[in-house]
Design brief:
The complex is a heterodimer of chains A (about 270) and B (about 270). With about 270 residues, chain A is an all-alpha fold. Chain A has a single domain, classed as MetI-like (MetI-like fold, Orthogonal Bundle). Helices cover about 80% and strands about 0% of the residues of chain A. Chain A is globular, with a radius of gyration of 24 Å. Chain B is α/β, with parallel strands linked by helices and about 270 residues long. In chain B, helix 3 crosses helix 4 and helix 7 crosses helix 8. The radius of gyration of chain B is 18 Å and the shape is globular. Chain B starts with a helix and ends with a helix. Classes of the chains: A mainly alpha (about 270), B alpha/beta (about 270). Chains A and B meet through helix 7, helix 8 and helix 12 of A and helix 3, helix 5 and helix 6 of B.
Chain lengths: ~270, ~270
């Protein structure tokens, strides 16, 4: 008998959890108020699909705008902080410490400034997602191999060429890692702020249904948020695979040493 | 020099010095004030010559090479490359091959080789053809589509050499290009470099720590002293060309190697 692949095991575990989700409340091991059965949750999700759909659209809109802000401002600030030594010494310690602050305590202030509509969620989630994007962009630019820049200069590269052809491609892997983290934090930021003070969005549905003890609808909202995060992750991975093809391209071919001797023998 | 004329007939036409260094000195600002790095360097490299510079670590040989490449500015003295001063890097006059890891990992081998031509906005077909020709010259035809991490250390350095030569500069500067390679690959690459050199009639200035490599490759070995770097000795290597591995076992080779070693060893 052969060992099942990790992939199969992972899928089995996932399937097992879903079965448990259905079975545990059905057999009365946990009250349905704590965990409603999976089928019941899916049923209310289907029943209220127009409500959930509308809420999802609001959340998606907020996430999209917040991500644009977090990524745009984050990459720009990160590039300046990472690329200019004076800015780095001045600002990097400040930003690094700010990153450790639980920014959620600022959310009440954001609602005071921007109201309880989408604006406050966008502002909050934008700030929340900004830090990892900015910090990893700065790190990505700061840690570029000096040799790459020296070689580019020896080949006569101008500063704009250096930025476009060396600095940007060299920092893409680190920046992408930051975008992934920042994007995930943006989703969290939007949902959390919707849960705190809001009148629409998926997070609002969670809070609202929890207060009226409607567990299936709470779990239905949770499923939607889960799906949102998973889809986001799949998209980011696909982007990474496409952009970073040079990091993985060779894994499928034989080792270079295997091909080398044939060449060297022609010397 | 008749053996060189034999190998590449074009070389005898190129007259004068490819590299001319006069009264070069360099001082850099260290932690405890000004540190003299190079002093009184006079160096003439005739066109088509293979010159190897050896010296203890920190003797400023890499600094010297950077100045020849226009990557660093000397404190005093003049440098002429191909008859003109070199204030900024000029890949059409000087190609540079670095020790290792200077290929861009996000570009394939052929894209790395054509990189200097991309910077000059050369037409795509033209630069691709030129890059393929260079890969062919260094024995890597068919490997153009590989990314650097798919190539062995020796193959990467072949790509680096191809990149240095792609604009057909008269001078090729090499900063310990084979230092990171294992002994066998290093020997093969040295031999390969001589073949490429004899086919292209370039002037080569080559830095190394290996005395065997220095004597094996060079027309002339320049021995430098520790800081501040000065030229201690110029050892002409009169071994016939093409060089063979068997020459390393000869007494002449051993004596030359000994002479170079003697100079370096005496450096405090």
């Amino acid at each position: 008998m052969t060992r099942p692949s990790p992939r199969t095991v992972r899928r089995l575990i996932g399937l097992g959890l879903l079965v448990l989700w259905e079975a545990v409340p059905r057999f009365g091991l946990l009250p349905e108020l704590f965990v409603p059965p999976l089928t019941k949750t899916l049923a209310v999700l289907w029943l209220d699909r127009s409500i959930y759909g509308a809420a999802l659209l609001v959340t998606l809109y907020e996430v999209a705008v917040a991500m644009l802000i977090a990524c745009g401002v984050g990459i720009l600030t990160g590039a300046i902080v990472g690329g200019v030594a004076t800015m780095r010494n001045l600002m990097l310690p400040v930003f690094s410490s700010l990153y450790a602050v639980p920014i959620v305590i600022l959310y009440p202030i954001f609602t005071a400034w921007f109201g309880i509509g989408s604006e406050s969620k966008i502002a909050f989630a934008g700030v929340y997602g900004f830090f990892p994007v900015m910090l990893s962009t700065a790190a990505g630019i700061r840690t570029i191999d000096e040799q790459y820049l020296l070689a580019a200069r020896s080949m006569g590269a101008t500063l704009p060429q250096m930025i476009a052809r060396v600095i940007i491609p060299a920092s893409i892997p680190t920046v992408l890692a930051g975008l992934r983290l920042g994007g995930a934090l943006t989703i969290i930021g939007v949902v959390v702020s919707e849960m705190l003070t809001s009148a629409s969005g998926i997070g609002y549905l969670v809070t609202m249904n929890r207060t009226i003890l409607d567990s299936p609808r709470v779990f239905a909202a949770i499923i939607v948020v889960l799906a949102l995060s998973v889809v986001f992750d799949i998209i980011v991975r696909a982007v990474e695979r496409r952009t970073l093809v040079w990091q993985t391209a060779g894994r499928r071919t034989a080792s270079p040493e295997a091909a080398a001797p044939a060449r060297l023998a022609t010397v | 020099m008749q053996h060189m004329a034999q190998l590449s007939p074009g070389r005898e036409q190129s007259q004068g010095a490819a590299v001319e260094v006069r009264g070069l000195g360099h001082i850099y600002a260290g932690r405890d004030g000004a540190v003299p790095a190079l002093a009184d360097i006079d160096l003439t490299v005739p066109a088509g010559r293979f010159v190897v510079i050896v010296g203890p670590s920190g003797c400023g040989k890499t600094s010297l090479l950077m100045m020849l490449a226009g990557l660093r500015t000397q404190t005093s003295g003049t440098i002429l490359v191909d008859g003109r001063p070199i204030a900024t890097p000029d890949p059409s006059r000087v190609g540079v091959v670095f020790q290792e890891a200077s290929l861009y990992p996000w570009l394939t081998a052929v894209e790395n080789v054509e990189f200097p031509l991309v910077l000059k906005n050369a037409p795509r077909d033209e630069r691709r053809a030129r890059a393929e020709a260079m890969l062919n010259l260094v024995g890597l035809s068919g490997f153009g589509g590989r990314y650097p991490h798919e190539l062995s250390g020796g193959m990467k350095q072949r790509v680096s050499i191809a990149r240095g030569l792609v604009q057909d500069p008269p001078v090729l500067l090499m900063d310990e290009p084979f230092a990171a390679l294992d002994e066998q690959t290093r020997m093969t690459m040295g031999h390969e470099l001589l073949r490429i050199w004899s086919q292209t009639s370039k002037t080569v200035v080559f830095i190394t720590h290996s005395l065997t490599e220095a004597v094996y490759l060079a027309d002339e070995v320049i021995v430098m002293s520790a800081r501040p770097g000065r030229i201690l000795d110029r050892v002409p290597i009169d071994l016939p060309r093409p060089r063979t591995y068997q020459m390393m076992a000869t007494d002449v080779f051993g004596a030359l190697r000994e002479r170079v070693w003697h100079q370096i060893r005496d450096v405090p």
